[in-house]
From TrEMBL, chain A:
Gene field: hypB
UniProt key word GTP-binding: yes
Native species: Paraglaciecola mesophila KMM 241
Protein family per UniProt: Belongs to the SIMIBI class G3E GTPase family. HypB/HupM subfamily.
A GO MF term: nickel cation binding
One BP annotation, GO: protein maturation
Protein name: Hydrogenase maturation factor HypB
TrEMBL record, chain B:
UniProt protein name: Hydrogenase nickel incorporation protein HypA
Gene3D superfamilies reported in the protein's UniProt record: 3.30.2320.80
Record's keyword terms, sorted: Metal-binding, Nickel, Zinc
RNA-binding recorded as keyword: no
GO molecular function: nickel cation binding; zinc ion binding
UniProt-listed InterPro entries: Hydgase_Ni_incorp_HypA/HybF_CS, HypA/HybF
Entries under PROSITE patterns matching the protein: HYPA
Pfam families: HypA
Gene Ontology biological process terms from the UniProt entry: protein maturation
Keyword Metal-binding belongs to the record: yes
Gene name, Swiss-Prot/TrEMBL: hypA
Family membership noted in the UniProt record: Belongs to the HypA/HybF family.
Length: 248, 107
């Protein structure tokens, strides 16, 4: 075989079936390192009855703005905090802190996603027992973040109108991971006639996801109310499940 | 000479988020100066198999068309296709270690 590109132009392997080869059957999940840390994170969140929401999307689709609006409207009802993942800067964390909510920035350098150990390293900075909800705003990226469980309870994926309605089928692994898809920046629909909401939902269904879809615009209070309603329901469900699990 | 790894056999599903070609490149870089520096990486890619929640039929589908092939429903359970598994490792005993440079990349 060619050693440069792996093309099969020369001899095939003759050594793998040699009787002297020792074969070890492994059958191990190669993501188990991250997965076991994610399970530990989730156990810690559950021990403190904190709902953890992982927000994923392309850069610039409105994750931070949605968090700001959510905090503005609901911080008197729920104790919230945010982990911000970005390659560089504390800009997003600073936007959250302006609302009086704790935000811890993870700067990933050239890393394109958060993983469970990065999250674990900043958890000590939070008083989890005082929180109802911890948001993790993942690095803006529709590829890698989907593959790393952080210990969250819910994955929320934003698809903003300027991105186009066919993104789910272009990024199937990411959109399959969604527990809810938010079509964000719907105020742009009037300028962006190629974006068709039913087509976006169809594209989402084509990756085999039956999760709910909400249209939101941070400029539209009625739209935001739909998201707030979903969000508060998710907290209620989570807290009642936690009570059941703790045997109360 | 010490025992060496001759083959690493992994299974990659199309929905695992792992790209076989990129994994192969990474493997070639990572095996240098290890007991696997002559090792072949064999990558088997699985198909995406689903079971329809409505009609119960099994289908093999493509990565962005995960719909029941029988009734067209999108309410399906994934049976196979998102795995990233180390299946087996093969070693060569010291007296059989060869200087073979060939590599096999099975897709």
């Amino acid at each position: 075989m060619c050693g440069n590109c792996g093309c099969e132009t020369q001899v095939k392997s003759e050594k793998t079936d040699k009787p002297s080869a020792n074969i070890v059957e492994v059958h191990a999940n190669l993501k188990s390192g991250n997965d076991s840390q994610a399970i530990a994170n989730r156990a810690l969140f559950d021990a403190h009855n904190v709902l953890v929401i992982n927000l994923m999307s392309s850069p610039g689709s409105g994750k931070t703005r949605l968090l700001e609006e959510t905090i503005r409207a609901l911080k008197s009802q729920y104790a919230m905090a945010v982990i911000e993942g970005d390659l560089e800067t504390e800009n997003d964390a600073n936007r959250i802190r302006r609302h009086g909510v704790q935000a811890e920035q993870i700067a990933t350098g050239q890393g394109c996603h958060l993983d469970a150990s990065m999250v674990q390293k900043v958890l000590g900075r939070f008083s989890l027992q005082k929180l109802d909800v911890l948001f993790i705003e993942n690095v803006g990226n529709l590829i890698c973040p989907a593959c790393f469980d952080l210990g969250q309870h819910l994955n929320i994926i934003l698809l903003s109108v300027p991105e186009g309605d066919d993104k789910p089928e272009k990024y199937p692994v990411m959109f399959r991971a969604a527990d809810v898809m938010l079509i964000s920046k719907t105020d742009y629909l009037q300028f962006h006639d190629e974006f068709n909401v039913p087509r976006a939902i169809e594209s989402f269904r084509k990756v085999g996801n039956d999760a709910p879809v909400l249209e939101v615009s941070s400029l539209n209070s009625q739209h935001l109310e739909r998201w707030f309603s979903y969000f508060t329901h998710a907290i209620t469900v989570h807290q009642s499940q936690s009570l059941q699990n703790s045997g109360v | 000479m010490d025992k060496s790894v001759s083959l690493v056999h992994v299974k990659v599903g199309p929905l695992s988020g792992v790209e076989p070609d990129l994994l192969h490149h990474a493997f070639l870089a990572c095996r240098t100066h290890t007991i696997g520096d002559q090792a072949t990486l064999r990558i088997d890619t699985s198909a995406i198999k689903i079971r329809c929640k409505l009609c119960g039929e099994f289908s093999r589908v493509s990565v962005n068309h995960i719909l029941c092939a029988s009734c067209g429903a999108w309410q399906t359970d994934l049976i196979e296709g998102d795995e990233f598994i180390l299946q087996r490792i093969e070693f060569i005993a010291p007296d059989n270690v060869t200087e073979s440079k060939e590599r096999k990349h099975v897709r």
